[in-house]
Amino acid sequence: MLRSLIDLAPIYSKVLPISKGLGAIATSPETPPKPAGTLSKPEIRSSLWASTVDGIFASVFSGVTGGVLLTNFLLELGASSIEIGLLSSIPMLVNFLQPVGAYIADRTTSRHWYTLSIFSASRLLWLVLIVSIGFFSWHSGASHALVQQTLLMILLTHILGALGSPSWVSWMAALVPHRLRGRYFGLRNSAANFTHLLCVPLFGFLVASWHGGTIQGYGVALSLAVVAGIISLCFQFVMADVNPQVPTQWEKGRSKADATPEKGSLKTLGRDRNFLIFLLYWGGWMFAVNLSAPFFNLYLLQDLHLDVRWVTIYSSLTAGANLLMLLIWGKLADRIGNRPLLVLVGAMVAIAPLLWILTGRDSISIWCWLPALNLLGGATWAAIDLCGNNIQMEISPTQGSSIYFAIAAAISGLGGAIGTTAGGFFVEFAHSGGLPALFALSAGVRLLALVPLFFIQEPKSRPLNRLFA
Q1: Can you state the angle between helices 402-429 and 273-290, rounded to 10 degrees?
Q2: Are 150 and 43 in contact (CB under 8 A)?
């Protein structure tokens, strides 16, 4: 459900050994990266265009290596509710390694080569799972062994991804001017979600209709996704490189207006009360959301016994609503700030799980209620994902922000992993209503998680009490 900036960036990564990797990163380019402060407007424009195309192909990759297609693949193999919970908790839990990735990345001299060396190898790791699926299909291997191999692959790729994501976010923060962030990321995410809208149903029909069965069909879809993932990385060669040792032109301008333009570090973060409150909100929100979010597809596939083709169509409705609303939310965020939208739209997201309890397998639910819920989810999550990422950029320091992004990801990962794991155990062992009871519990916890937002100070954000004045 959560489709953040990192989600559409190169997600899965492989880090170079520290002793050799940093040297390779520093010397790989034929010419050193230009200081970001000297980048021209055409270079910025071409970089943002390339990043958008990168996001489009990355959306194809992430649509197959996560979400409903991967969940259905594991369910076809006989995965339990706990294993479905692990599918979602592993990517969040390994975010604890993001501070390590930020530490390494901030000591290199090239965002591009650090990012490329990590993410290209990581995406190729999915070829191992493709080989395993082929062996299973042709030699009738043990299904549970393939479940374990899939979870192991998810663990490895996301460990590597956690080491590279802070560098990617910092690279984008350096390239996108402050005043354009809402509109640009709205446009980028819209393009990616439009691709998701088209591709996921096609892959869903491919998997469901493949003559060799759904498991073999997923292997074919995964092969195509890896190709798309590698193509997306090729467009990073068009993006202007950034040297993290040199302040960008946007950071220089912001530093002049900043009363305390300190470089980000663990020490300054510990004294930054505003960012600490944000961490409390972000971690609590991720716990509350992921208490139930990974289990909506499980509810459709297992409890309602819907065909995977129906579920992929619903997923596309979510992507379509997300696509239509992103540009609107982006412009609105630039006008009134990110915090007001997080509060107002967050309240709508909080009560959404209660509405799922009213669904069933009847015609009204299948044709009206479930499509409406997915449209609502896509529209509201567009604001949460966009503003959640942008507010981090707004309240973090002008330099050394990678450590701030990494700590935020680590805290959110911890909260999300605990929430997903708790939700999995609740469904597996609690005899108190199953998934509907979990949805109700999640709604209450989501409302509580919004409270810290009222105490966060965002520059140039409109106060909540004057929002409708």
Answers
A1: 30
A2: no
Note whether 391 and 339 are within 8 A (CB).
Answer: yes
Task: Convert the pLDDT of each residue in 178-211 to its tens digit.
Answer: 778 888 888 888 888 888 888 888 998 999 889 8
**Pick from 349, 436, 421, 438: nearest CA to 385:** 349
Neighbours of 398 (CB within 10 A): 22
- Domains of the chain: residue spans and CATH: 5-247+262-459 (1.20.1250.20)
For 26-38, what is each residue's pLDDT tens digit?
Answer: 333 444 555 545 6
Q: What's the whole-model pTM score?
A: 0.70
Query: Which residues fall within 8 angstroms of residue 259, CB to CB, at 6 or more apart?
Result: none
- 399 bridge partner residues: 263
Q: Which of 349, 306, 292 is nearest to 325 (CA)?
A: 349
Alpha-carbon torsion angle 298, 299, 304, 306, nearest 10: -40
Q: How far apart are the C-alpha atoms of 416 and 406, rounded to whole Å?
A: 15
Beta bridge partners of 157: none
Place of tokens 């490895």: 156
Total Cβ atoms within 10 A of residue 367: 10
Using only C-alpha atoms, the chain has a radius of gyration, in whole angstroms, of 21
